[in-house]
Amino acid sequence: MSILTLFVVIPVVMLLGLWLSRNLNQVRGVMVAGSTALLLLSIWLTVAFVQARNAGNTDVMLFTYSTPWFRPLNIAYSVGVDGISVVMLLLSSIIVFTGTFASWQLKPMTKEYFLWFTLLSTGVYGFFICTDMFTMFMFYEVALIPMYLLIGVWGSGQKEYAAMKLTLMLMGGSALLIIGILGIYYFSGATTMNVNEIAAMNNIDPEIQNVSFPLIFIGFGVLGALFPFHTWSPDGHASAPTAVSMLHAGVLMKLGGYGCFRVAMYLLPAAAQELSWIFLILTTISVVYGALSACVQTDLKYINAYSSVSHCGLVLFALLMMTKTACTGAILQMLSHGLMTALFFALIGMIYGRTHTRDVRRLGGLMKIMPFLSVGYVIAGLANLGLPGFSGFIAEMTIFVGSFENAGTFHTACTIIACCSIVVTAVYILRVVGKILFQEVADPHYLELTDATWDERFSVCCLIFSVAALGMAPMWASNVISNGVEPILNVICQNL
Predict the structure, then answer these.
(1) Cα–Cα distance measured from residue 458 to residue 469, given in angstroms and rounded to the nearest whole number
(2) Cβ distance 171 to 187 under 8 Å?
(3) Is pTM beyond 0.70 here?
(4) pLDDT in tens, 291-324
(5) Each residue's pLDDT tens digit, 70-129
């Protein structure tokens, strides 16, 4: 058995522990123990992976393991990690760990909430470690289903509408995915569903690829907030509880970009080359539209949700450029955006829990009342803005430099338009930060409010540290990701 299986085993043990828990302290104990174990396992895996690469191990996947699961369809439980999945597992563990502390005070039904939260994280971990298409799809569904209940039961505002909209749109994407996956399996003539083995064969007819590629790219693109299939995201974010918003925006939306790259582009390279221009237009619209929409919002969660649409659009945009630098930047952006957005939603949830409003117009002067939360929000805003020293700068610079490497006039025009989104991002970030920092206290009742508690401070500090650490020392992540991107790009670009 591979060490990677522990990423699924630990959450399952956590589920059992939560089910047996009899009081709130036991529930919290199980969550802290489990999320800490997952974080330590992710750190160990990252270090072991880097050491193996430095020692000269050039295999596409490390820590591999495979055992048949359903022989008639050649479905296997096969796991393995490359540079991309290693950093995604680390990101997931950081957000599950900090999300546990961000939900420390959550009531009612704390036990049931953490049960569904842990099931959601099980699906996320399983998706990133699997190399079998069908098993990936199964874990993908496991990650989606709990969202309905987490938003519908523990959410706020129009939570039933948001939960239903999110579930229906993502299930629609799943329907396209399963058709595309079965099409790849059937027309490749493969006797396996292993992604790397099918990619090595590379014998799917280009016409079949042209049909399957849009199905899989749109199927995963729905989760990656691809325009015009993004409308579920702002509503889902706005209604979700704090930790769910953190995991949803920080990790779950990354499943979309990861799937587009790992399955759609890797297995259907000819179609990726042929049809990339269509999706490049859609992603360019996503980047600009998300940023412009954020400018006109007054709800903090909606501002951050539309910002996520823009940043996740940038991930897909960079992947479609198909240069090594741009694709490395895309994965760095997934990592950076995951941490930044988790920090944003954690802080917004903490502010909302005290003021009972997310309306920017009613949140003036918070710096005087809650200095810790306000400073945290300013730091998150500056990171989102792409300030040097934070992770956002590294990711976006890598993307735009890599995009300009694609010399075509069309690609250059798309890159210039996407670059404009940086200016628009500055507008909505600085507008909110200015409100919080400089204006008078909007409501006299706010003067009685308290600043962050120890659990909230711990969660926020962990995320700020992660964002700053990636911004200050990005080379280890960039090298790890670059090694993971290269084999996939070699397959895609050999069709040129």
Answers:
(1) 16
(2) no
(3) yes
(4) 888 888 888 888 888 888 888 888 888 888 888 8
(5) 877 778 888 888 888 898 898 889 888 888 887 777 777 788 888 888 888 888 898 988
Cβ 251 vs Cβ 124: under 8 Å = yes
Contact between residue 328 and residue 402 where contact means Cβ atoms under 8 Å apart = yes
Backbone angles phi, psi at 410, to 5 degrees: -60, -45
Taking each helix axis from N to C terminus, what angle separates 391-404 and 371-385, rounded to the nearest 10 degrees? 10
Question: Per the structure block, which two tokens stand in for 349?
Answer: 């949830």
Say whether 298 sits in a helix, a strand or coil.
coil
Is the CB of residue 492 less than 8 Å from the CB of residue 264? no
Nearest Cα to Cα of residue 254 among 113, 344, 140, 380: 140
How far apart are the C-alpha atoms of 188 and 267, rounded to whole Å?
A: 10
Number of domains comprising the chain: 1
Backbone phi, psi, residue 356, to 5°: 60, 25
Q: What is the three-class DSSP state of 405?
A: coil
β-partners of residue 319 are none
CA dist 216 to 88, 180, 267, 282, 297, Å? Answer: 20, 6, 10, 15, 32
pLDDT tens track for 369-388: 788 888 888 888 888 887 88
Residue 174, domain extent:
3-493
Whole-number Å distance between alpha carbons of 404 and 32: 44
Class of residue 199 by CB neighbours under 10 A (exposed 0-12, middle 13-18, buried 19+): buried
Size (the chain), residues: 496
Residue pointed to by tokens 């479905």? 75
- Tokens in use for 308? 């996520």
| Residues β-bridged to residue 65 | 79
DSSP-assigned states of every residue in 187-219: HHT-S--BHHHHHHH----HHHHHHHHHHHHHH
Who contacts 122 (Cβ-Cβ below 8 Å, separation ≥6)? Answer: 8, 11, 12, 15, 139, 142, 143
Nearest to 320 by CA among 257, 393, 368, 396: 257
**Residue 84 tokens, joined:** 């991309």
User: What's the Rg (C-alpha) of the chain?
Assistant: 21
